[in-house]
Specification:
The chain is α/β, with parallel strands linked by helices and 408 residues long. It has 14 helices and 17 strands. Helix 11 links the parallel strand 12 and strand 13. Keywords: Methyltransferase, Transferase.
Length: 408
């Protein structure tokens, strides 16, 4: 799916960064699959009209989201707690009808958030295109349809079940190339008093921290409040609240409604003003970002090569989708990182996308501590380092690359 024009404003995109050929972020594979491994040219552009930061080309959704999708949200205790709090905030927000409220979550994965509504008997529906995780959600009592969301599906749901009080999503909206079509569908789904509440990795944090690994095949967009205001404004909807989140190294929760349905909270003009000051509406900001990314690459490769020359054992910790961008862009393979440990069974015994670093069970790391562990899941640093105190006490050191390359 190539886009030389902005997917929202239909105006020309300015390319700002080229990552070269990249595999699928979640494309963990076996040796027999090497010959057929999928790669695509990954570069990002910016529209000064919509203020959307986006991939110039994205693989077809069916290639990325399928019946053997390699990510289950419930594997993270931190995220399970986060989504429980998200659900509770929705339930207590005052936005839901007092009688028979109806909530939909887009990209519900294995039901990690919707189960909090299901357990309270609240009418809900999950929409999840990846069949294997949708089945897991249904198994846990979360009513889920395995489909891609569209304006047509929205019309079908309204016809069959009526309009909804809240449309929720977490780390999903940024995956969808036809985001304008999704917003049109949401508008049809919502009651006059209905709200949209979704969160995604936040462009402001990505720029500030040089966390370029938030850019990979699934993330066709990285949003700012400015770009979301523009997008939903095309459908006569408006931002009514903005809530910064710690998840994924910096996310933003956007709350929107039909124009005029609710008062706009102070957080909206305050954060929009901050974004203007940060330059998230200007192309030159992204030129500086490119320079920071290029320097980060140089620093990381030099550090790993230096450790290799000194005979140090370096491994990766957590086989994340984000790490695929870093490893392939920097050309880091098994010559520099011996293996990546991970707790996700579906990834264990496979090799990392593109660079083919072995992915091993977490127990391998625990049983034989390396000299250095490159923390690929840097956004879960607090949770992981709390769990791995013995590793540090035994002399192990952490390498991180966000906000700068360093040894902890």
């Amino acid at each position: 799916m190539t886009a030389k024009l902005c997917r929202v404003s239909n105006t020309p995109l300015k390319q700002v960064l080229d990552f070269g050929k990249q595999p699928l972020g979640n494309g963990f594979l076996e040796k027999k699959d090497f010959a057929n491994e999928y790669f695509f040219p990954m570069s990002v552009g910016f529209s000064e009209v919509s203020m959307m930061f986006q991939l110039l080309e994205q693989p077809n959704p069916e290639i990325m989201f399928h019946d053997h999708y390699a990510f289950y949200s419930s594997t993270s205790g931190f995220m399970a707690n986060h989504f429980k709090q998200f659900a509770e905030e929705v339930i207590n927000s005052g936005y839901l009808s007092k009688t028979s409220p109806f909530v939909i979550e887009l990209g519900c994965n294995d039901g990690i958030m919707l189960k909090n509504f299901a357990s309270k008997g609240i009418q809900h529906l999950g929409i999840e295109p990846s069949l294997n995780v949708a089945k897991e959600a249904n198994k846990h009592g979360v009513r889920t349809r395995s489909e891609f969301f569209s304006e047509e599906l929205a019309e079908t749901i309204v016809k069959e079940e009526g309009q909804i009080d809240a449309f929720l999503a977490a780390n999903v909206m940024c995956h969808i190339p036809d985001i304008l079509g999704v917003v049109k569908g949401i508008k049809k789904l919502l009651k006059p008093t209905g709200v949209v509440m979704f969160e995604d990795p936040y462009l402001g944090d990505v720029i500030a921290k040089t966390s370029y690994d938030q850019i990979y095949d699934e993330h066709v967009f990285l949003f700012s409040a400015l770009s979301i205001k523009y997008l939903f404004g095309l459908c006569d909807m408006e931002l009514i609240d903005l809530q910064p989140q710690k998840t994924h190294g910096g996310s933003m929760r956007y709350v929107l409604a039909h124009k005029g349905a609710y008062p706009v909270k102070n957080s909206v003009p305050e954060i929009l003003a901050k974004e203007m000051a940060q330059g998230l509406d200007k192309l030159e900001t992204f030129d500086k970002f490119r320079e920071s990314v290029e320097q980060s690459k140089i620093d990381l490769v030099n550090l790993l090569k230096d450790l290799k020359a000194k005979g140090k054992k370096v491994v990766g910790y957590a086989a994340t989708s984000k790490s695929t961008t870093v490893l392939n862009y920097c050309g880091i393979g098994p010559d520099l990182i011996e293996y990546i440990c991970d707790t996700t069974p579906i990834k264990q015994g496979k090799l990392s996308p593109g660079m083919h670093i072995p992915v091993v069970p977490y127990e391998t790391f625990a049983a034989n501590s390396p000299d250095y562990a490159f923390l690929l899941a840097w956004n879960h640093a607090e949770e992981i380092m709390g769990k791995e105190k013995k590793y540090v006490e035994s002399g192990g050191k952490w390498i991180i690359h966000v906000p700068k390359v360093q040894v902890l």
